Amino acid sequence: MKKLFLTAIVAVFGLTVAQAQETSFGVMGGLTMASVSLGDADSESETGFHIGLLADLGITESFSIQPEATYSMVDELSVINLNVIGKYYVTEGLNIQLGPQIGLLGGDAADAWEALIGEDDFTKLNLQLAAGLGYDFTENFFAQARYGFQLNDHYTGDVDGADLKLNTFNLSVGYKF
Q: CA 72 to CA 50: how far, in whole Å?
């Protein structure tokens, strides 16, 4: 897990040096909705919030990379994410977003899941593929909507059909400097 975080950080800083267009930094925050699936059963969505820091690294006129560090809190579950989102501008302002989100679960809910399942059969690592839309209203103000689909399983045991996944939907507003 440490290697994965280190690789993501090195990639982000490498992109900062390699970028050819404008770079900006910013803050964002908004609404987070999360649902947990256990096997074939889905839970109702819980609502919370997220806040974060970002860098918008222009690669070309129509493509940029947006690394992010965010913190989310939903009910008693907290998640720290490192995201690397590719943004393709379809028109001026409107962009399609796609990229990995690497998260680490925390809080009372994650501790309860780990206690219930067992430390040997549970991972707090949350790997998601995120897809969404964003719109830059001005050079500074933006909004985005993004869905994160979990790729790995928090249950690492060998019982078939006992997967435990966390999927998220985020609505964000932000300001770039």
A: 4
Whole-number pLDDT of residue 29: 99
- Give the contacts of 74 (CB within 8 A, at least 6 positions apart): 32, 33, 34, 46, 47, 48
Q: What is the SS3 assignment for 17-51?
A: HHCCCCEEEEEEEEEEEEEEEECCEECCCEEEEEE
pTM value surpassing 0.70: yes
C-alpha 92/C-alpha 32 separation (Å) is: 27
Q: Is the dihedral of CA 2, 6, 165, 32 positive or negative?
A: positive
What pLDDT is stored for residue 6 in this prediction? 57
Per CATH, which fold does 22-176 belong to? Porin (2.40.160)
The helix/strand/coil state of 15 is helix
Containing 111, the helix (H) or strand (E) segment is helix 107-117
What are the per-10-residue average pLDDT scores of the chain (177 residues)? Answer: 58 50 95 87 87 97 97 94 98 98 91 83 93 98 98 84 87 98
Q: Indicate the DSSP class of residue 114.
A: H
What is the C-alpha to C-alpha distance for residues 124 and 44, in angstroms, rounded to an integer? 21
* Distance in angstroms (rounded) separating the CA atoms of residues 60 and 62: 5
